[in-house]
Amino acid sequence: MNNNNFQTMKNIFLLLLFFSIAVFADDPVLEDFAQGYELITDGSGAIYRVPLPATVYQNVARDDLGDIRIFNSEKQRIPHAIRLQETRATEQVTRLELPFFPLQGEPDTSGGDDMNISIAENGRIVNIQYKSSATQTGQGITRYIIDLSGVQQNVDVLEFELTGNEEGYLKRVSLEASNDLNYWRTVVHNATLSELDYANHTLKKNTIDLDNGRYKYLRFIWNDDPNGLQINTVRAMLNSITRERQKTWTTVSGERSEKDKHIIEFDTGGTFPIEEINILLPEDNTLIEAILRSRSDKKARWRTHYTGLLYKLNMKGTRLEQGPVHIRATTDRYWQLEVKDKDSLGTELPQFTFAWEPNELYFLARGDGPYTLAFGNASAGSPGKPVDAFMHVLSEDQQSELIQMATLGNRVSLKGAEALQPDREIPWQRILLWSILIIGVLTVATMAFRLFRQINHSG
Which phi and psi angles does 43 have, rounded to 5°? Predict the structure, then answer.
């Protein structure tokens, strides 16, 4: 390849690079958006997050929230990402009362040959019968079988209520576990149960910790003389963690369709991420058969979410209502309720209420604040998500250190509703840039093809 050809191709590549940058840098500026919010930060984080308010969902042009941008004080766009809000963990302790059975007699006389244990098909102990007449019910009970076969999760703690000793006690006990009532293994050695009065205080320990095991049967054994102590109640303390996101319920009124009086139409007013809905009937003793549908815009096809009965009954002071219905997540704005029998609805129209979970906005604290959240631009394309990709490689501890909360400040007046209208003008500048880019690519391809042929001929 001669120097002239090389220089020509070099210039073309530089030209292509220049126009590629120009095309992809053609992103709306701050003033091109409908509205905005100031974002208040404390300057301590590398990344900030803030829940998106309802105003954003009501004024974006894209249902994927692709027309949201973040700008710093120099009006430079900075990277951001939109993610589902973090779940909030709630720990609950449930106490489940367990069946238990005292074992009569001494340990060496209560083996499998001296008693018959009746077990139901589900594994639960029904009854224990003794064969030997030597075992007397009057003897001190030193062992019990605790039936956990009906518990469907690991047991963390056992709680005991004891009776028979009013002066206080301090006793050592052990627990053995079995799945067939034949073979036992010790799972707790010398645990302590106590109830003592000391210095005008009552010191009580009535629980035994387990190793989060899944046990079918436990055998409780007094290691010390119980001195008349007896088990009155045994409870399994079950820990359950519920993770949920904060929900916001919004209610809108309906209007009868001009085309069909059997249809009530609702407008949520925005592209809210909806996962739960409910129809609020206005009058008691209403029972209707209905179909609930939705669509993203007024030209889209309807999608059915629910078909069935809706009711609100009041019988002798007791109310019975349909309640919320979970649906597949959607951001559809327009909804309709088709009632098969219009006379069953009454004169007042129902209301549509929906639960939505605000997404959280994450943005890099690049440049100086204050930062501005801008939203609402019909011509904006969806930006990249470097922040989202970055957070996927961070551990939870790293995220807690790097990510801080921001708060919404004052509203910022920008272009207004005009920004939500599609740009109908012919984008001559964009067309020109893309034309030059395509012509340049074709020119390079032609030159490469000719060079390839020259090399083949010269060879």
Answer: 80, 10
**Can you tell me the distance from the alpha carbon of 204 to that of 386, in angstroms, rounded to the nearest whole number?**
56
pTM above 0.90, yes or no: no
93-243 to CATH, choices 2.60.120, 1.25.40, 2.40.50, 3.90.550: 2.60.120
- The per-residue pLDDT for range 285-315, each reduced to its tens digit, is 888 888 999 999 888 999 999 998 888 877 6
Residue pair 322/279 in contact by the 8 Å Cβ criterion: yes
Q: Output the six-digit token pair for 207.
A: 């629980």
Where does residue 362 fall: left (phi above 0), alpha (psi -120 to 50 degrees), or beta otherwise? Answer: beta
Tell me the residue type at 212.
Answer: N
Q: What is the CATH number of domain 248-356?
A: 2.60.120.260
Q: Kindly compute the dihedral angle of the four CA atoms of residues 315, 316, 317, 319, in this order, to the nearest 10 degrees.
A: -20
Q: Which two tokens stand for residue 140?
A: 């001190």
Residues 6+ apart with CB under 8 A from 275: 326, 327, 328, 329, 355, 356, 357
What are 360's two structure tokens? 């959280």
CB atoms within 10 A of CB 272: 23
CB-based contacts of 354, cutoff 8 Å, min separation 6: 249, 250, 268, 272, 274, 276, 277, 278
Question: 366, 283, 334: which is closest to 47 by C-alpha?
Answer: 366
3 state DSSP class of 186? strand
Residue 438: its H or E element: helix 428-458
C-alpha 326, offset from chain centre: 14
Residues 46-67 pLDDT 10s? 889 899 999 999 999 888 888 8
- Cβ atoms of 196 and 170 closer than 8 Å: yes
CA distances (Å), origin 360, targets 78, 148, 273, 288: 16, 43, 12, 38
In whole angstroms, what separates CA 223 from the centre of its chain?
47
| Pair type for strands 403-405 and 47-51 | parallel
**Neighbouring-strand partners of residue 288:** 310
